[in-house]
Amino acid sequence: RNPCICVYILILPHIPHRSRKELREKGPPKILQELKDVVLVEGSAAKLECRVSAFPDPFIVWYKDGKELKDGPKYRYVFEDPDIVALVVRDGVLADLGKYTVTIKNPFGQTSGFACILVEVPAKVSKGPDNIKAKRGATVVLKAEISGEPPPDVAWLKDGDDIEEDDRVFFDVGDTNTILTIKNAKLSDAAKYEVFVENNLGTDQSFARVDIL
Hints:
Keywords: Coiled coil, Cytoplasm, Disulfide bond, Immunoglobulin domain, Nucleus, Repeat
Strand content: over 45%
Organism: Scophthalmus maximus (Turbot)
Mean pLDDT: 91
Low-confidence stretches: none
Largest sheet: 8 strands, mixed
Subcellular location: Cytoplasm; Nucleus
Main location: cytoplasm
Structural class: mainly beta
CATH superfamily of the largest domain: Immunoglobulins
Distance between the termini: 135 Å
Domain Ig-like: 29-126, 137-211
């Protein structure tokens, strides 16, 4: 007698798959990972980014010190799947220093976050001192324009040696310049003078000749 084999076929109803977006809950945007301050070196690019949760997809606007930034060659809006929004600041300059804010908005609400871009600029003598000819007893003033962020350390040298300041020979350092003053000039003050600037990104120097007649 042949054995009887029974086969049961279970037919399940078709259940459509729901997309990832359909599974997400609608609601106001939320920032899951905050923006962080970044340091921008002059001439390079910096990137501010945060991680967000938002459905429907949000509308993003970036601001610098309260002024809206347009997406373009200088400021680039970046969206990275699945949930990263970013701003790339290109060709960094000192003027890029500031507070940056991102607003994230959809029909259910909005949120915002902020961070600062700190700009670092190599120390530089933007304009060196001029050569000077002065009479004995006159006051000699050597002035140089300087820049850098962090603000550079400044030194003045005479024939390669650091100048020791006193009441007659001294120098001042401002935000954008430094001035060496020589009162009651003597023949021994005739020399090659150097202004030297330095910060953690670099050094620079410039020279001038002082002749006493």
